[in-house]
Amino acid sequence: MSFSPQKLLLINLEISGKEIRDVSSLISQSFLIKSVNLGSTQVSIPPSYFLGLPLILTNPKQLLYIKWGNDNSNIIGKMIDLTYYEPDCEILLKKPNSKQEIRNFPAYTSFLEIFKSVYPHLSIDTSNYLFCRTFKNQTKLLLPICNLPISVFHIPGSVWTIEFRNFPSSLVLCPDTLLLTKKWISSRINETNPLLSEVNQLIVGFNEILNNESVTSSQQEQFNSFLKTVINNRKYNDLLIRVYKSEENEFRLNPDRSVTIIHSSLQNPLTIPGSKLRLSFENDSYNIKMNNSDDISIPIRMDSVLPLLELFNCCYFDFYASIPPRDFSFDFPPRGTLKIPRACRDSRVMMIKDEMIDTVYRQEMDFGNELLKKKQTNKA
Q1: What distance, in Å, lies between the first and last C-alpha atoms of the chain?
Q2: Distance between CA atoms of residues 334 and 106, nearest Å
Q3: How far apart are CA 311 and CA 164, in angstroms?
Q4: For residue 222, which of 206, 198, 211 has the smallest C-alpha distance?
């Protein structure tokens, strides 16, 4: 699956037969997909990569498939369980100071666990941070610090960074948070805007901590005072929002995750909950709409939708974050070099006939138990 405009703007996905084996973590970039139909492909549990689709997370019934059994409850949890058997993920992290680090994590490791491992000094409050996956230096995906497993989004060769979700009202002052603050400001104020030099002047006094790991309580207080100044002064409002423009449309993503739409077809700017923003494709044309409502319908060309992809990505943060933590401490078969059972995308397990399920399961369990005995013997 490539990142062509047609793939990025997919809304309904239909897969049949052996095509399901080609599904990979690349599908997470097509986060506009609201329904998946696996056709006649018989699977007990769909591939875990579909967890990368936020509109499926919020409405799992839109993942249509022919299941082996009658129990379709907690399908999201079962898909997360599959990641327990997938290969480890080697990810390339780029820190705020541009230094790079390669880390290896089990496939089922959540973003929350990774964040706490890589940035323990920022883990007091993870709610205002995002992971950003960049692939081939251009295609980005923003993800909240959540309980979804890394393997669902891991693309070999991609680079992972962090950034703010919103402009912070308070922070633990350190080199990382200072660099993130400066990056946020510089990306939102044009160099010719006099506000840039004004804000930079407010922040220049903190630059010395970039070479000094220790921060005084006085510096911490002054920094939080600076943040509050920016938030409370209306002239800095443009620093608090994300603005996306396309054709004659302007969309403002506000700190409360609402979206203000400015369009010639609207008499006044319209503000709606960001989580309700949807893209539809009807009669060979794209339209921006509200979920389950006909109150707005803004026609838009395909090439004009592309600059708005990050807007939709940000509007769906809460869907990613809605998944509760998964406990892998229950009685799983052993997890070794060989995947047991082979439940990854290249697996043939999903193609097994119903009457063979018990046999294959017993074989896998027997193999796992033997492997565990050998390990225990070697340790003794």
Answers
A1: 47
A2: 14
A3: 15
A4: 206
Tokens of 111: 């973003």
One-letter amino acid at 329 equals S
CA distance 250 to 282: 22
Q: Which residue has the tokens 């350190």?
A: 174
The model's pLDDT over 91-128, given as tens digits with 9 standing for 90+, comes to 999 999 999 999 999 999 999 999 999 999 999 899 99
Distance, in Å, from the CA atom of 93 to the CA atom of 180, rounded to the nearest integer, reads 15
In the chain, what are the domains?
92-164 (3.10.20.90), 175-235 (no CATH)
How far apart are the C-alpha atoms of 104 and 85, rounded to whole Å? Answer: 15
Cα dihedral across residues 67, 71, 74, 79: positive or negative: negative
Q: Distance between CA 204 and CA 218 in Å, rounded?
A: 15
CB 350 within 8 A of CB 360: no
pLDDT digits (tens, 9 = 90+) for 308-356: 999 999 999 999 999 999 876 544 555 544 443 444 433 444 444 555 5
